[in-house]
Amino acid sequence: MAWTTRSSRTVYENRWIRVHEDEVTGPDGEGIYGVVQMQQPAVFVIALDDRERVCLVELERYTTGRSLEVPAGGSDGEDPLVAAQRELHEETGVTAARWEHLGRMNALNGIAVAPEHVFLARDLRITDAAVSQREEGIEAVRWVPFADALDLVADGTISDGETIAALAFAGIRLHRFR
Fold first, then answer.
1. What is the pLDDT of residue 176?
2. How many Å apart are CA 79 and CA 99, to the nearest integer?
């Protein structure tokens, strides 16, 4: 049985998200569903240098604490590739000559409308210290061999779901699983 939305009302909104409460009819009958909707798609970048190392950023998240993640952010209404290029440079001071769209995914699809795009960036050049690192809350940029990044997923050091999924996209594309 398909879901039917009988009514919807916005209960909160800012420039990044909108939260709405929907009266629905679903498989179990009538109910209420809370939905978080991202205002713009997000982008995630697997930046791989010529030594096959992945660029990761360390930061402190308000919601979950310390986190090790791939460079990422909101598209702010831009084309996703343009946003990915901007985010990589802002967070790491790195630019890339080659870009490949690896795929699209949805975060928290049980409660959210949060489309995301994953990109592979290659032929990297470090241009300068990242201008926006402090604003973004980034404490460090780390370069980790791809296989070691997978080990960091396995041991729980990398726990960000989107980073894990982005690494999976890259592993599939590059045929590297260890």
1. 83
2. 13
For residue 149, the domain's CATH number is 3.90.79.10
34 and 73, same domain (yes or no): no
- DSSP H or E segment with residue 96: strand 94-106
**What pLDDT score was predicted for residue 133?**
65
| pLDDT the model gives residue 132 | 59
Q: Please list, in sequence order, all residues whose beta carbon lies within 8 angstroms of the beta carbon of residue 19, skipping any fewer than 6 positions away.
A: 10, 11, 12, 13, 34, 35, 36, 37
Q: Which domain holds residue 32?
A: 4-38
Same structural domain, 156 and 78: yes
Distance between CA atoms of residues 159 and 62, nearest Å: 15
pLDDT tens per residue across span 62-97: 999 999 999 999 999 999 999 999 999 999 999 999
pLDDT at 131: 55
Bridge partners, residue 53, by sequence? 145
157: Cβ–Cβ under 8 A, 6 or more apart, which residues? Answer: 68
Question: Are 8 and 90 found together in one domain?
Answer: no
The Cα 168–Cα 25 span in angstroms is 35
